[in-house]
Amino acid sequence: MKFKGIMLMLVMSMVLVFAAACGNNSEGNGGNGEESSDKVSGDVLMDGSSTVFPIMEAVAEEYASAQPDVKVSVGVSGTGGGFEKFSAGETDMSNASRPIKEEEVKALEEAGIDFTEFEVAKDGLSIVVNKENDWVNQLTIEELQKIWLGEATMWSDINSEWPEEKIVLFSPGTDSGTYDYFNEVVLEEEQMNKEATLSEDDNVLVNGVTGSKNGMAFFGYAYYLENKENLNVVPIVNGEGEAIEPNAETIQDGTYEPLSRPMYTYIKHSSVKDKQAVNDFAKYTFENAGDMAEAVGYVALPEEKYTEALDKLNEIAGK
Q1: Which segment of the chain is annotated as a signal peptide (predicted)?
Q2: What is the pLDDT of residues 181-192, one digit of tens each?
Q3: Residue 289 contacts by C-beta under 8 Å, 6 or more apart in sequence?
Q4: pLDDT at residue 3 above 50?
Q5: DSSP 296
Q6: Where among 234, 258, 282 does a domain terminate?
Q7: SS3 content of the chain, % helix, strand, coil (to 5)
Q8: At 266, is the secondary structure helix, strand, or coil?
Q9: pLDDT tens digits along 234-243
Q10: For the chain, how many structural domains are there in total?
């Protein structure tokens, strides 16, 4: 009897240990209905805006530590180029530095692709000049328009006290959402000066301005911050008549207007539902986008905006 009693106790102990282990495993796999530590595998394909790229690249790098078996590809075809790939069914997510256009929505509808727009951060489109340029202390939107339409080709055309030297322009390419935004807000849909050098790569624009004393370019705030030791940012006169530089505060509160703007990612519903990796990465994005945006030089949204995005994501996934 003694032997049987000992054996019974051992068996019961093993059962309790096994049960505890199962309970812990269940909790770690999302048994509490909230966070999951499950390992995920698969791929996430996204393309689009070079302005949004630094945020998504930072998120993808951090995510790789948590989910090393997921391959996240972040392309930079520009906002328009990204939407073309999105409507062709080549990507799960499309990053954009402007809202989607009607014709792009139509292309997605014709392809039978359901999607949702999510805001991820804020940006201040930054006007920059060469570090040696010590004469441009501010510009109005009207003056910017004259320069970029080619109506003013010399600095002295803007201000007679400025050098009588030709302005050298560097612009994002026509597939860029930054180009579209500038074209709408500053150029009012008129033809940009054909002598401007265009590129989808913002680093080309930075190098263009740093290499030319009379250079001028525009691009996202993060690229200015990354290169601020070699560039001067130009204060822009807002609707109140104040010359405002872009920074975290002026971009967030809207005083740096009209060049403050939201940045987006668009997510395909079927990818969220059918690809665990996409759902998991998207969730990770909205849990970390604020910190990542600030880490790379953009401005985070209020926390409730990210909470709303997570709720919407769960709704799409049917959770």
Answers
A1: 1-19
A2: 999 999 999 999
A3: 55, 59, 120, 121, 300, 301, 306
A4: no
A5: T
A6: 258
A7: 45, 20, 35
A8: strand
A9: 999 999 999 9
A10: 2
Residue whose C-alpha is closest to residue 113's, from 219, 279, 270, 262: 270
Could you write out the DSSP letters of every residue in 67-132? -TTEEEEE--SHHHHHHHHHHTT--SEEEESSPPPHHHHHHHHHTT--EEEEEEEEEE-EEEEETT
Residue with tokens 């910190």: 291
Indicate whether 12 pLDDT > 80: no
Q: Is residue 279 part of a domain?
A: yes
What does the pLDDT look like over 50-77, one tens digit per residue?
A: 889 999 999 999 999 999 999 999 999 9
* Distant-in-sequence, close-in-space partners of 137: CB < 8 Å, separation ≥ 6: 235, 243
**Looking at the structure, do residues 201 and 274 belong to the same domain, yes or no?**
no
**Segment 88-123, tens digit of pLDDT:** 999 999 999 999 999 999 999 999 999 999 999 999
How high is the pLDDT of residue 62?
95
Place of tokens 């002295």: 156
Asked if 304 and 118 count as a contact pair (C-beta separation under 8 A), the reply is no
Question: For position 203, which CATH number holds?
Answer: 3.40.190.10
The whole-angstrom separation of Cα 196 and Cα 193 is 6
Range of the domain at 212: 126-258
Same domain, 188 and 71: no
The verdict on 248 and 146 lying in the same domain is: yes
Q: Which pTM value belongs to this model?
A: 0.77
- Residues 140, 236 share a domain: yes
Task: Say yes or no: 239 and 164 in one domain.
Answer: yes
Distance from chain centroid for Cα 50: 8
- Final residue belonging to a domain, choices 258, 276, 297: 258
